[in-house]
Design a protein that fits this description.
Aspartate Aminotransferase, domain 1; 2 domains; seven-stranded mixed beta sheet; four-stranded antiparallel beta sheet; 12 helices; 13 strands; 36% helix; binds pyridoxal-5'-phosphate
């Protein structure tokens, strides 16, 4: 009998399946889900009500070019629509980039403690994955530069980084980009960009005209509260975008996501409310957690990283205690952050409940 495993690229064997944050079973509305960095807010009613008529037209394929969405993105972010590609979530765009720019025996650099989907798509494309060590849990541009060699084709990192919440400011980013050879594609994953109010940050969009080798990826899953619809986009120069457009699925973005996505972009009040809510909690949540006796860190995104000292507490008991109380947080075992877990910035009510139950969990030891 044929051994099916021998029919794939050898790198496929090294893939560890993506483990998502804990989720609802049976649509249990009482569960507080703080495990996947989703928005705590429902989209505005007037955007939601558009969905019905869109479903009625589901017998037709969507527009493969996602034109209305590109037009809205270009208006809202002041972009050239020919430099945009839309995808079925930003993970679709990341995967398309990997397929497009990998060659046989090439290497892809990812940061240690980075988004676990990058190694999956790199290996799926046949690449060898090289991990650059972090510095103080943050992405180290120097360590990434040290890993570059003749075989390097792509560098992936998220800024801010998931799951650590750390950031690389614009001056450091520019310094890094100046040192990366231009035949290496640098993917700046800005899944959490919109949450940042710090002026020292650049999402990289302003750098696309200067650096011919960078690609920005963005999502509607976080600030725009559309994780369930699956919608993301990428931004780069037209030569790169034309290549990516050839590789994407013919109708990779469904018609509902295209329309709802272009409507949510216009909801300025919703956007402002979401940033403000996140900002307030991002500033206060780490210290509230530290006050309880755990170690938490500054964050630039919509989640907080938490360290559990194994000499004092059992992380797994804490996570299970919270789960029994209906609160789902993200264990970071598969990120190899063995003493850590992550909590999303949910609604104020959810976070207050989380803090109350976390306190109770710590009493138990
Ligand atoms: C850094 C990072 N990039 C990309 C994604 C994927 O987002 P999307 O829902 O757009 O596929 C996530 C999701 O959590 C993420 O954390």
């Amino acid at each position: 009998m044929v051994k099916i495993e021998t029919l794939t690229k050898p790198s496929i064997k090294l893939i560890e399946k993506y483990v998502p944050g804990g989720s609802y079973s049976n649509n249990d509305k009482k569960i507080i889900k703080l495990s996947s960095n989703e928005s705590p807010f429902k989209i505005p009613n007037k955007v939601y009500s558009e969905g019905k008529s869109l479903i009625a037209n589901s017998n037709f394929y969507p527009d493969g070019d996602s034109k209305i969405l590109k037009d809205s993105l270009s208006k809202v972010f002041y972009l050239n629509s020919n430099k945009i590609i839309c995808g079925n979530g930003s993970d679709d765009i990341l995967s398309i980039i990997s397929q497009t720019f990998s060659v046989e025996n090439c290497e892809v650099i990812c940061s240690e403690f980075g988004f676990t989907y990058y190694p999956i798509i790199a290996r799926a494309s046949g690449c060898k994955v090289v991990f650059a060590p972090t510095k103080d849990l943050g992405i180290s541009c120097d360590n990434i530069l040290k890993k570059i060699n003749k075989r390097t084709k792509i560098i992936f990192f998220a800024n801010p980084n998931n799951p650590t919440g750390t950031i690389i400011f614009k001056d450091e980013l520019i310094n890094f980009l100046n040192k990366v050879p231009k035949n290496i594609i640098v993917v700046l994953d800005g899944a959490y960009s919109e949450f940042i109010t710090d002026k020292r940050y650049s999402d990289g969009i302003d750098l696309v005209d200067k650096y011919p080798n960078i690609i920005i990826t963005r999502t509607f899953s976080k600030i725009f509260a559309l994780a369930g619809l699956r919608l993301g986009w990428g931004y780069s120069n037209t030569r790169i975008i034309e290549l990516l457009e050839k590789i994407r699925g013919p109708f990779n973005v469904n018609s509902i996501a295209q329309s709802i996505g272009s409507l949510i972009l216009k909801e300025k009040d919703f956007f402002i409310k979401s940033v403000k809510h996140n900002d307030e909690w991002a500033k206060s949540l780490p210290s509230k957690i530290n006050d309880l006796g755990l170690e938490s860190y500054e964050t630039f995104a919509n989640f907080v990283l938490i360290k559990v000292n194994p000499l004092k507490y059992s992380k797994i008991n804490i996570i299970n205690y919270l789960k029994n109380k209906g609160i789902l947080v993200r264990d970071l075992e598969n990120y190899k952050l063995y003493d850590y877990f992550r909590v999303s910035i949910g609604s104020t009510k959810s976070l207050n409940k989380f803090l109350k139950e976390l306190k109770n969990a710590l009493k138990l030891k």
